[in-house]
Design brief:
about 80% helix, 10 helices, globular, mainly alpha
Length: about 300
């Protein structure tokens, strides 16, 4: 037990979070200037290694790289909040997929074709869909956070809850090195594909989904484990449905990586909307139970 606590403090303490935040910010800033430099070196003809890659066609595309490191930090925050708040953990999932869309927008901005045929050009249409989706997701996440705070106000602390938190801490400690290894393996695999591509780099879709399709696959398994563990601490129907609904929401997000275009965007919006609906209904159940308990006491 003491060893587990020490590992948790080492990997997921407030001090560690601040250190990782500072490192990620520096790395993001440096990576932005490196990416920008490579774009200009390519434009001036000094190097020609990246002429066929979409991410090196415009200086605007350089924003894609620091955003990728910010997403890595968001992954860490998701694990950090897992033992603290289940709804904050789910919120981080939604924030990550929204940031992935925002990151894609920066790449798409550099390739827009400004013409009267805007709604006839596939890439311009997809940019429009993603732009609208990011606004919708931003609002849905805001509402989800509001509902999460209402839930916390109604929750009552028990010894079972404390035991559940200890188990979630154990899961979080396992996830930190797991995701680090997964990210490292993905980077090495992508680099090897790039070196063997003979001047034909991987498609942008494969780059955009890099790491995060496997990441959300692991999250589905984690959500299922949390759902099963929750059965040890509660048999309340509305809580079981809430936790099950969050698993479905994560699965929908994962499915969005298997398709492209408008279908992918719709799946992401539906996933967050489904999670929001689930927590709204859950809170209504919770409120009704609280009112019934108050009436019984009186």
């Amino acid at each position: 037990m003491k060893r587990a606590h020490q590992l948790f403090q080492l990997l997921l303490s407030e001090i560690t979070k601040k250190r990782i935040e500072k490192v990620i910010l520096y790395v993001a800033l440096i990576s932005f200037f490196i990416h920008l430099s490579l774009i200009y070196l390519s434009d001036f003809g000094i190097i020609d290694l990246f002429t066929k890659t979409e991410l090196f066609k415009s200086p605007i595309s350089a924003i894609y790289t620091p955003f990728s490191f910010i997403l890595i930090y968001e992954v860490y925050l998701l694990i950090y909040y897992l033992p603290k708040s289940f709804t904050t953990y789910i919120t981080k999932q939604y924030e990550i997929i929204t940031l992935i869309i925002i990151r894609k927008l920066f790449k798409d901005l550099s390739a827009l074709e400004l013409s009267a045929n805007w709604f006839e050009i596939k890439d311009d249409l997809q940019f429009t869909y993603d732009l609208l989706a990011s606004l919708i997701l931003f609002y849905l996440i805001y509402q989800f956070q509001k509902q999460g705070r209402r839930k916390l106000q109604l929750k009552t602390a028990t010894s079972n809850v404390q035991q559940f938190i200890i188990r979630k801490r154990a899961i979080a400690v396992i996830l930190v090195p797991l995701f680090f290894v997964l990210a490292l393996f993905t980077l090495i695999d992508w680099a090897s594909q790039l070196s063997l591509s003979s001047g034909n780099p991987p498609s942008f879709e494969s780059i955009n989904n890099l790491f995060f399709d496997q990441f959300f696959t692991v999250l589905i398994l984690v959500d299922v484990v949390l759902l099963l563990l929750s059965f040890f601490y509660t048999d309340q129907f509305h809580k079981i449905i809430r936790n099950s609904g969050f698993v479905v929401s994560t699965i929908l997000i994962r499915l969005s990586f298997g398709v492209s275009g408008l279908i992918s965007t719709i799946l992401i919006v539906v996933a967050v909307l489904f999670g929001l609906t689930i927590i709204i209904i859950h809170n209504q159940y919770q409120k009704q139970l609280a009112n019934q308990a108050t009436s019984a006491d009186n």
